[in-house]
Design a protein that fits this description.
The chain is of the alpha/beta class and 568 residues long. Helices cover 32% and strands 19% of the residues. The longest helix has 18 residues. Keywords: Glycosyltransferase, Transferase.
Length: 568
């Protein structure tokens, strides 16, 4: 046994628990670290311009007669080896609902997908991001079943809420009931806190035993090869009656504590917080810049990019981007445009006005998409997210393949140039469309962007020069190769925004040593436009096309973008 000695972990614990509980829990955490010491190897890998992350379900691509993780491995080996070095496999654990986000067993692999051997096989050639779905767990998990049985081990693992507690202040991400009744083995009815659905029961971190169990889970993920851990819905993780139960100080302390524990064994592990909230609230999870998340999902980017491309006016994107600040040079954004979830609207609260948000909603509806709502706590509901394939969202009522592809590539070119690390959703990479059949089949709006692809059909389409998938993927592939070759796109490299026109995106990226400069230009207008007085005089070379320019007056076609290397 390890004896108790004060350290930063203990200091964190005292912010959450009583002195007695803090001392006891600290000793148990040190024992946990000792148990994993010989199971986890560390490295000093640093993020660079070569880090690009694919976001995918373990079964996004299927091949008959083959485990899905093996098919993912085949896709990686066949199409991704020279362009993407990290794969975020969305929850691959046994689950009961929400496409994996209602976990039954944190430490198992869903047998429909494969085994830990399959996960480790992918990890041999790619870094991996795992999901820490630790705000809640499935009602069918052993943890919750043990709680209902009255097992001492699981006592107070969940939040049994008195019926007279006022929850009207609680911020809701859904329009479903916050409290769900469950009958225990003794016949007693418990009102259990369920932020997302009845099947997803929230864990009670006020009980330090829950913290210990979750730390064990996270360390096991590092043991299995996780280099990055995504903390799902982490903003809601700590509950306190009489508050809004989001972004509480205890939540930040909890994340900092988790980072402290993981970094005792593997300081290179990156924690990414997923908080689909207004931008200023979102970036609070960077902490001081050296103690909390190293990466934060850049949730404002997808709706701002979409609004700019749909309207032909990128002034809001320019202004927001120009004001981006980070608390240190040790943290960065995780830049994405689409994911397994919808396109959040809360992140642009205070950036876009109601009429501009309505423009996005209208575009989604005209593109065949859906709008999901959340409860406001006063009996009303508000739009929460747009459920729509990103390429379809960008091109409402447009049927021309070339224009749809052009708009999509414009959006991705911006995301790839942003300071930070790019995260590319599988359906963006391979040029998918709305899966309306999926929505009809499941009745779930988010199914619209979670299509399951047939491996043989996908291969044929990605090799067909006339197919939309080919046109998106091959151009995307080229951009990724170019991005990886320039130190200007290092996640931490300096950037500057020039607001020259409402339809022009103009950003300078520089290498850390200031020896290389790339000027990113993108015409958001729906027609050709001439732009004068660009910020640099001299000779430009477009990294994408290798075309040269000797003027600071350029005409750009509709949705054209350039990555201009500045010479001299």
């Amino acid at each position: 046994m390890i004896s108790y000695t004060p350290c930063s972990i203990y200091e964190r614990l005292t912010q959450l628990y009583s002195e007695e509980d803090s001392k006891a829990t600290h000793i148990l955490i040190l024992n946990l670290i000792e148990n994993y010491k010989d199971k986890i190897s560390s490295s000093n890998k640093q993020l660079s311009e070569e880090d690009i992350i694919l976001i995918t379900y373990g079964d996004s691509i299927k091949k008959e007669g083959q485990k899905h993780l093996k098919t993912l491995y085949d896709f990686d080996e066949t199409f991704l080896k020279d362009i993407i070095n990290t794969i975020h496999i969305l929850p691959f654990y046994p689950y009961s609902s929400d496409d994996g986000f209602s976990v039954i067993d944190y430490k198992a692999v869903d047998p429909e997908l494969g085994s830990w051997e399959d996960v480790e096989n992918i990890a041999k050639g790619s870094s991996l991001m795992f999901d820490g779905v630790i705000n809640h767990i499935s009602q069918h998990s052993e943890w919750f079943k043990g709680y209902l049985r009255g097992d001492e081990q699981y006592k107070n693992y969940f939040i049994d809420t008195p019926p007279d507690v006022d929850t009207s202040m609680v911020v809701r991400p859904r329009a479903l009931p916050l409290l769900s009744p469950f009958e225990a083995a003794d016949g007693k009815i418990h009102l259990i806190w369920t932020t997302f659905s009845r099947d997803q029961v929230d864990l009670n971190y006020a009980n330090p035993k829950v913290l210990l169990a979750v730390l064990d889970v996270l360390l096991s993920y590092v043991e299995k090869g996780a280099k990055l851990i995504r903390l799902d819905a982490i903003a809601f993780v700590w509950k306190k009656f009489g508050t809004n139960c989001i972004h509480l100080e205890e939540t930040h302390q909890l994340i900092q504590l988790m980072r402290d524990v993981l970094h005792k064994l593997a300081p290179e592990i990156i924690m990414i917080t997923e908080t689909n909230v207004p931008h200023k609230e979102n970036i609070s999870y960077f902490g001081s810049g050296d103690d909390e998340a190293q990466m934060v999902y850049n949730f404002a980017l997808p709706p701002l990019l979409a609004h700019g491309i749909i309207t032909g006016d990128c002034r809001h994107l320019n202004k927001w981007h120009g004001e981006l600040e980070l608390p240190s040079d040790k943290v960065c954004f995780f830049n994405f445009t689409a994911s397994h979830d919808g396109i959040g609207l809360r992140p642009v609260s205070g950036i876009l006005n109601d009429a501009e948000i309505q423009e996005l909603i209208t575009a989604a509806e005209h593109s065949g998409g859906r709008v999901s709502m959340r409860s406001n706590g006063d009996g009303t509901e508000s739009p929460y997210e747009l459920n729509c394939n990103y390429m379809d969202l960008l091109s409402p009522l447009i049927n021309t393949q070339s224009e749809k592809v052009g708009r999509m590539l414009l959006s991705q070119s911006i995301a790839l140039c942003m300071p930070g690390v790019p995260g590319i959703y599988i359906h963006s990479l391979v040029g998918s469309k709305n899966d309306l059949d999926g929505v009809m089949l499941t009745g779930v709006n988010r199914s619209i962007n979670r299509e399951k692809l047939d491996w043989e059909k996908l291969k044929n389409e990605l090799n067909n020069p006339h197919h939309q998938r080919y046109l998106v993927f091959e151009n995307y592939r080229h951009m990724l190769k170019v991005r990886k070759s320039s130190a200007c796109f290092n996640p931490f490299a300096p950037f500057k925004i020039y607001e020259l026109s409402n339809s022009l995106f103009c950003m300078l990226r520089e290498s850390a040593d200031r020896k290389e400069k790339v000027l990113v230009l993108a015409n958001f207008a729906h027609s050709a436009k001439t732009y004068e007085n660009l910020p640099f005089q001299g000779r430009y070379s477009d990294l994408i096309t290798q075309e040269f320019f000797d003027t600071n007056v350029l005409q750009l076609e509709a949705h054209q973008f350039l990555w201009l290397s500045i010479e001299g």
